[in-house]
Amino acid sequence: MNQSNCMVAQSGGPTVAINASLAGVIQGVMDSDQYNICYGAVNGVLGILNENYLNLTGIVSEDAGAIDRLKTTPAMYLGSCRHKLPNYKDDDSPYVFIFNQFAKLHIKAFFYIGGNDSMDTVLKLSDYAKKINSDIRIIGVPKTIDNDLCVTDHTPGFGSAAKYIATSLLEIAHDTFIYAVKSVTIVEIMGRDAGWLTAASALARNEYNTAPHLIYLPETVFDKEQFLNDVRNMLKHRNNVIVAVSEGIHDADGNYITASKSAVDTFGHQQLSGAGKALEFMVKENIGVKVRSVEVNVLQRCASHLASLTDIEEAFAQGQKAVSLASSGVTASMVTITRTSNHPYTVEYGYSEICDIANEAKSIPVEWINEKGNDVKPELIEYLSPLIQGEVSVSYNNGIPSYMNVSHLSHS
C-alpha cells in the first residue's frame, strides 16, 4: 500500500493557543493531497515510545465542529510530556524504536508543537533522520507563553497569556484602589529567563490607571535595597503600589531570588516559586505597610475566556504552514513568524533551520527596559500591543465553556 501519513504531538507547558496550532495541522493535512491520515501521539514523544495514538483525521471527520472547538480548547488535547531524548551517539535505542514506528504507520512527516525543550527534540530527531538518510520531514511548530524562542518574532500562546496578565493587573488595581490606606501588592508572573510576560503587565495602564508602578524582569539584576527604595519613593506619591515581578529575578551573581537548590526538571532547569512572597517579606520587614503577594501561577497559561484572537488565528496559521512546509520538502526546521508592520499590524509566515533555534533563548532587548531596571519603555509596549488584540467567541454549555473531550488523557 502506497500510503503517506503524518504524525503530530505536543509537549512542554500548556497554553491557550497550542490546540489552535494542532487544529491548523489537522486542517492543513485535510486540505493537502500529500497525506491520508494524521495521527496524534498522546503525551508527546512518549506517545510514540508507548505506541499510544489517536486518528485525528478520523475524529475530525466524524465531528463537523471539532476543528473550531479545538481552536478554543485550552491546554493540550494530545497531552504533554517533558521527556528529554538522549544523544543518539550515546543511546540510539529510542530513535530506532521511534523511526520503526514511523515506518510501521507510513509516517512521512512529523510535527512537534512546543517550546524550547520541544525544539531540542525536533533537533535530535532531525539529526538522527539525517544520519540514517530518512526522508521523513520533521517540523517544529512554536509554542510558549514565555515568548523566548529565537528567530521568530513571537510565539503562539504568548499573546493570550499577555492579555490575561494585563487584564488581571487592571482588575487587581481596581481591587486595590478602593482602600485609602498605604499598601503594596506584588504580583509574581511566570518567566524564568525572559521577562516578556511580566512586561506585558504594562498593557494594563490606561487613562486612569498607572499600575503596575514597578516592573522587575530577569533581564536586569535585582537589587534588594534598590527595590525597597523604589517602593518607598512610590509610597510618597500614592497610597497603593502595585509591583509586577518575574519568577526568575536574580541578583548580581546570577542567583535566583527564591530558587530551590535541589529541585530541577528533566532538562536541568531550576524549579522556581515564591519570588513574590520573598518580596512581600522584604517590604513587611523593612517598610511596615500593608502588603500582600499574588502568584498568578498556572492561571495565566490556559485562560481561554480571555484569549487573544490574534494569537489564536496566528497559531492556527502556523499549524497549516507546518504542513505546507513538509509537503514542499522542508525538514529540520521550525515555523517562524516575521512582523512586517506595526501600523497596520501584519505578519508573514516562514521557517528557519532548527539548529539556529533549539537550546537558545530570546530575551527582551535591554534598550526596551529603563535605566533603573524597574519599568519598560514605549518600544516594548508598541511590540506587545498588537498581540493581545481581538476577542475569541467561546461556546458555552450550562454556563461553562464547552471544550473538546479529553477523557483519553485520564490516567485512572
Poorly predicted tracts of residues: 259-265
Number of helices: 12
- Give, in order, the helices and strands: EHEHEHHHEHEHEHEHEHEHEEHEE
Q: From the alpha-carbon coordinates, what is the Rg to the nearest angstrom?
A: 22 Å
Number of strands: 13
Report strand order across the widest sheet. 3-2-1-4-5-10-11
The helix content is 25-40%
Structural class: alpha/beta
Distance between the termini: 37 Å
CATH topology (level 3) name of the largest domain: Rossmann fold
Coarse morphology = elongated
Which CATH C-level class of the largest domain is it? Alpha Beta
Mean model confidence by pLDDT:
92
- Number of self-contained structural domains: 2
Biggest sheet statistics: 7 strands, mixed
Beta-strand residue percentage: 15-25%
CATH architecture of the largest domain: 3-Layer(aba) Sandwich
